[in-house]
Every structure is written in structure tokens, then in C-alpha cells.
Amino acid sequence: MGKLGATGKKWLLTLHLLFSGLMLGEAFVFLILSITAANTSDAGVLLGCYTSMHVLSKTAVRYSVIFVMITGILLSVRTHWGLFKFNWLIAKEILTLLSVALGPIGMYVWTLKAVKLTSAEGTGVFQDPSFIVNRGELWTGIILQILSLSAILVLSVFKPWGPRKKRHNPE
């Protein structure tokens, strides 16, 4: 596969940015729904918040992550950036792996558990130790997701640390 031309690169970058923005927006939706869930005593609202998060984790979160990874890899291998030529790109790749663990995997598991617990116990769920732990894990995941996606955005804009140093082989 050869390098992309200017127009192809712009289209691929546009798709990458659209799906990246979707990922960050989803993380903020999770935050808003979690704040709502934390401030309600209504079992219906609580279940609605967790159900909405779970539906998002099964749909938009999964697909945005898949398309961000596909477009990101294509941008790396089909342009001058490469997969491992720059330190800032390697940092983005590591943060992307964290985002994958938190997004489609973590959010799915935590919201599914929250839906099950809330459905079974209603407002009694607020005293359930497993609900309290799960809610804390969900909050932690949401905050880490927002921080990692924000860091990826900053790295993409500023591109710090430059290219990796080439190892000199004295052979």
C-alpha cells in the first residue's frame, strides 16, 4: 500500500477526527448521566441513567472506538507519521489502549452490573455494597476515559517529543 495523496489524507483525517470527537462526547454523556444518577433518589431515573449508559456502551462507544482505531492505523501507515516513528504517537497508542479497556470493555461491564442491580433492588440499591463499589469503578472509569481522551487530543495538537532517536548499530 502506497502513501495517501493530500485529498485522501484529508478525508481519512476528517473521519478520524469525527469519530474521536464522538468518543470524547460519549465520555461526557456518561459523566452527565452519572452525575444525574448520583443525585437522584428515584429508582426510575436511576435505572434510566444506567440503561442509557449501557445502550451507549453497546453501540456508539464500540463503533466509535473501532473506527478511530482503523482510521488512526491507516493514517499512521499510509502517511509519513508511521506507527512508531514519533514518541508522541507511541504515547497516543498507549492511551488508546487504555481508552479501549475503559470504553467498550469497562463501561459495558460496569453499566450492565448497574442495570442488573438497579432493576432488582430499586431504591434499596443505594445501600448495597456491590452497587457502591460498582458505582465507584464506573466513576473512576469515566474520569480516566475523559483524561486519557483529552491527553490524546493535546498530544495530537502539540505533537511533543519529536521523532524517536534511531539506534546506531556498530556492526
**Total E-strand runs:** 0
Tell me, what's the shape? elongated
Number of helices: 5
Overall pLDDT metric: 93
Distance between the termini: 31 Å
Helix content: over 70%
Question: How many domains?
Answer: 1
Order of helices and strands: HHHHH
Radius of gyration of CA atoms, rounded to a whole number: 20 Å
Structural class, by secondary structure, is mainly alpha
Main sheet makeup: none
Percent of residues in beta strands: under 5%
Low-confidence runs of at least 5 consecutive residues: none
Description:
The protein has helices at 6-38, 43-58, 60-77, 87-121, 129-158. It is an all-alpha fold. The protein has one domain (6-158). Helix 2 (43-58) runs antiparallel to helix 4 (87-121). The two termini are 31 Å apart. It comes from Gordoniibacillus kamchatkensis. Keywords: Membrane, Transmembrane, Transmembrane helix. The chain crosses the membrane at residues 12-37, 60-77, 89-110, 138-158. This is DUF2269 domain-containing protein.
Strand and helix map with partners:
Layout (H helix, E strand, L loop, with lengths): L5 H33 L4 H16 L1 H18 L9 H35 L7 H30 L13
Helix pairs in contact: 1-2, 1-3, 1-5, 2-4, 3-4, 4-5
Looking at this protein, list some descriptive labels.
171 residues; mainly alpha; 5 helices; elongated
Gist?
By secondary structure, the protein is an all-alpha fold. It is 77% helix and 0% strand.
